[in-house]
Amino acid sequence: MNSKRIQDILKTVLSLALGVAIIWLLYRKTNLREVWEIASSAHFGIIASSLVFGLLGNYFRALRWELFLNSLGYRPKRESIVFATFGNYAVNFLLPRAGDLWRCGIVTKYDQIPFSKTFETFFVDKILDILAGVVLVIISLALYVDFFVSYFHQNPGFAENFTKLFTSVWLYLLLILISGGIFVMFFYFKENPLVKKVNKFLQVVQYDMVLIAKMKSKGKIIIYTVLAWLSFYVYFYICFYAFDFTKNLGPIIGWIVYAMSNVGVAVP
Q1: CA–CA dist 235, 229 (Å, integer)
Q2: Would you call 87 exposed, middle or buried from its count of C-beta atoms within 10 A (0-12, 13-18, 19+)?
Q3: Tens-digit pLDDT string for the chain (268 aa)
């Protein structure tokens, strides 16, 4: 067995081991018996039917990403973009966030697009999803303000923790340290070879961001974003009917839960 083959096997084994370790750390306190009881009572036919809308949402995301790459002058194959986007979420199940890098790497490999360009456009795509998630939450807060006021009154601990987070001295101290570190790096060590490379890369990124901002397909970007999020909402809400304890909840409650669940999109 040659060394390259051994390296590939080791990479796969280590990736799987790391994924299992992360999953164990995240869910080690979960009551698996309770999870199994809930899962065994689910109507899997309904869950299976909802997957159509989940796939549709990811398809619209793939089309949106393709437009970002097109704005930089690249024409990847549609099937590569769709496969990479679908695979992104599958890989994330094994190793959280590794799917993001895998997604960019697949398009780089099969369409000969520089990894820096696929990652830049993926980053823009991610930022757009974060903004869409924020808009979704704001709309929900505005439309159902009475519901949230009632919830905060009934759960004072939640509001208290939220307030503590944004009034924490440590949070602002961390932001100051990060800002200070960046300032020192770029103004006092600007002749450092590594800093020069980073600075050059950021200049290229800035140029590419200008190209993306000037793209002519902004209307399509908005349409694909709206269609993707609506598809995910339908995908999410259909699953309510798969469980007896949620099947009687209406679409408004479904929308609120969906909006709040997307707060996690902002977490890198």
Answers
A1: 10
A2: middle
A3: 566 677 767 766 776 777 677 667 766 777 777 777 777 778 889 999 999 999 999 999 999 999 999 988 899 999 999 999 998 888 877 776 778 888 999 999 999 999 988 988 888 888 888 888 888 888 888 888 887 778 778 877 766 776 777 777 888 898 899 888 888 877 777 788 887 887 777 777 777 777 777 888 888 999 999 999 999 999 999 999 988 888 888 888 888 888 878 765 544 4
Asked whether the beta carbons of 68 and 124 are under 8 A apart, the reply is yes
Instruction: Indicate the DSSP class of residue 7.
Output: H
224: helix, strand or coil = helix
Say which amino acid occupies 43. Answer: H
Separation of alpha carbons 259 and 91, rounded Å: 24
Select from 108, 67, 56, 52 the least CA-distant residue to 84.
108
First and final C-alpha spacing in the chain: 39
> Whole-prediction pTM value?
0.75
**Between the CA atoms of 84, 87, 92 and 94, what dihedral angle is there, to the nearest 10 degrees?**
-140
